[in-house]
Amino acid sequence: QVQLVESGGGSVQAGGSLRLSCVASGRSRSLTVMGWFRQAPGKEREFVAAIRWSSPYIAYSDSVKGRFTISRNGAQNTVYLQMDTLNAEDTAVYYCAAPARNIIVSSLGNPGAYDYWGQGTQVTVSS
Fold first, then answer.
1. DSSP 100
2. Which of 12, 17, 38, 14 is nearest to 83 (CA)?
3. For residues 40 and 53, what is the distance between their CA atoms, to the nearest angstrom?
4. Which is deepest, 12, 50, 63, 93, by most CB within 10 Å?
């Protein structure tokens, strides 16, 4: 089993920045992919970014490309999401997730491909 714990959420004004962290524990050495998703009130959970290190690949949704950066510190079992130039549409609960097995590139944005989820961290951007 794998446990994921997010941190770093908060409130920020439009144009500001936040950095989210996700620490994996348990059988985290088996992981090869970690991703970030978000869910705003009344909306479905949507893909934000993912990083795969078995066959290195990074993916972003179009809505955050150029503003968000995903990175990983393997020694600390931690994945980060640096969020810059935030706007009100980025307000949501952000979730860290990981699949139990390696997944193909075309599945990186599919929440159904992920088996482990964190509890979420709230990001609120005021305009």
1. S
2. 17
3. 28
4. 50
Q: How far is CA 21 from CA 33, 35, 107, in A?
A: 15, 11, 22
Which among 2, 13, 17, 11 has a CA at the least distance from the CA of 84?
17
Note the pLDDT tens digit of each residue in 62-84.
999 999 999 999 898 999 999 99
Q: Given the structure tokens 């860290």, which residue do they identify?
A: 96
Gyration radius (Cα) of the chain, Å: 14
SS3 (DSSP) at 113: helix
> Which helix (H) or strand (E) is 127 found in, with range?
none
User: How is 58-93 classified by DSSP, letter by letter?
Assistant: EEE-TTTTTTEEEEEEGGGTEEEEEE-S--GGG-EE
User: Using CA atoms in the order 2, 38, 91, 125, what is the torsion angle rounded to 10 degrees?
Assistant: 50
| pLDDT tens-digit readout, 13-25 | 999 999 999 999 9
